[in-house]
Amino acid sequence: MDTKWKKLKIILSFAAFFLGVTLLIESVWQLGRLIAETKGEVWRTESDYQESAEFRRYISAKLEELLSVANDGERWKYGSLTEKGYDTQQSWPWEGAYEVSDAIAEETAEDAEAEAEYLFRQKIQEEEQEADTAWAEEQSLDEYMERMERDKNLLYAVIWNNRLLYTNIEEFEDKLGKQFQGDVIEGSLAADEYNFSLWFNRNRDGKVQISKDGEKEDVYGNGVYMPDSRWFVPGYTNFSIDEESKQAIIFMAAAKEPKLYVEEDYGKNGTVNYGDRLYSIRENFLSSKRQFKIGCALLAVSALLLVIAFIWRKEKRCAEKEISGLLGRTFLEVKLLFFFVGILFALKRMMLPLCFWLLYLLFLDWRENRGKQRKPIIEGVRTRELKYSLQKRIVRRGRLSMLSGGLAFLICCLALAGMRNMENWYFQDKYIGVLLFIAVVLLLNVAVSFLYLEKNRQLAEDIGALSDRILEVRNGNLEDFPILPQDAEMKEVFENLSEIQRGMDTALRERMKSEQMKVDLVANVSHDIKTPLTSIISYIELLKQEADLPEHVKEFIRILGEKSERLRTIVQDVFEISKATSGQLPVTIDELDLGKLVQQTLADMDAQVEQSGFIMKVSIPEFPIFIQADGQRLYRVFQNLIQNALKYSLAGSRIYLDVEEEEGQAAVRIKNISGRELERTLDFTERFVRGDASRTDGGSGLGLSIAKSFTEVCGGSLRVEIDADLFTVTVMFPKNRSDG
Q: Does the predicted model carry a pTM greater than 0.85?
């Protein structure tokens, strides 16, 4: 029992969700359409059609129509002033009957001639004859007013110079052409049958007076006509009429409940309707009200169903899994075909719920079955394509894309050419069908183009990944080996690159091993030399203390002392470089002010600077620039750089030292003019490299090498730039984040 109830709940939960969403979309669409069509009037609680905008537009148009009739009896032929202005292409509407103008007649004739080969030829020829007959019997003003006279839903009286010209009020038909004031009209009408009345120019002021259910309506509001004004009638301060038209008095009365008047005229037109305009306005208004109530009820029912679906959401998820499982067992090509055909059908019929459910199933399938789709046709094409080389695949895709585009263009041109004879309304369904056919062809072309675009996009991503991988190899990363899917087009290229990486990595490891052995050898030799060298220096110091030594012996001892000190410095430098290179140099990273450290170094070397005879131009900001580094090692760096500048600068030149901030970096830059020509090809930061090829300057060639090694150990960088004889060394460190 529990199992059956669970299965039933799964079915009921999704059924509630399905019906709830369907009713929600349908009701929202219906309510939105009604609100848009009625401009929000459907919200009003009253069910009086005379409060609708359509009724006001109709009465305003009728007033202008009767005014033109009263004025000269001719302007009714040229058009009516509506809310959008004069329409000079249409005559006054003939209510409930057909109307054919010269333009329509010509169009019908052209249609008949162009569509002679179609099955509707005979019917179109009959329409052409009817159009010619209707135009030949162009209606006169009296005939038009005679038709209006039969419409008892709208009573009227047209008075000109106090003479009654036209009326359809039976009580006053004997007054036609006679003197008539019109004051007695309203009293003669039944208030319960005609509850709406309009007077124009009753008080000879060119204004309109409207009464409804015995109460006068405020027609003009603030007196200025605006596009959203209720009534489009003369009498506003910015909407007046000419003096001649003020001789006319117009009266109109609208029925409270319009009826449809039918007259049988078997000798000419058969059955003819009169007064169907007001009748249609009322029926449309009441129908909109009913539809609005139905839409609200459907909206409430949909909300209830969605609440039930939310309460049973776990069961709904189970139903979705069952549906996605069924979709997963269906071929992707079949699903796409049904999706596109269904979308086209739904859009043609404006079936929005069907559109939603097709998109919902598409999303459900994508969410649950992504990467697991069964697509035999696509897989077969892909397998066949992989037989070709990469170059041929790219060329084939370009050709197929161009071919599909050209074919789609040709089919669309042929379809459009066939549509030239489908302008008549009889062919509306075929017209829409051709448009949908064109849409399907274009969609298929877009799908093919998208497919090849997606393949080329994936290929471009693989090429981009290959480029990034090559860049990483260039930057020294030889350990990461990217893995691509088995069907990736660049898989073979990546595998070849991976083999190159492995070979380079092996060679690099061997080289690093060899370099490490060299460093260890240098460190060991330096350490072994250090002990006897210390003894030599000690004995030289003892010899210096001996008395009564000949002068030439003292000179020898002095030279031995200088050379031994220089040798000890070289050994110490080599030892420290070896430790730095092998990562064994101890460092203590602290926060320090870079400017103060440079100032301290300059202060300690002040005597050397004065003895050198060079002028140093120092620029250090007053505010602190904090970095993270080892102060002792960095002090040695700046000491070596300053000594290098003092040793190799051109005599009489200046040395510039600047401490700056550059885009979140702290920089120390030392510039000097070299006293010797500089070789651009030399790397001055390498060990034992000197600018003086003669090696007579007494340097060891380790100063810049030590400076670079110590800088990098502390987390910074050292860069040497040569511009002719200008020698620039820049030391960069990231600024401390705590530095404001």
A: no
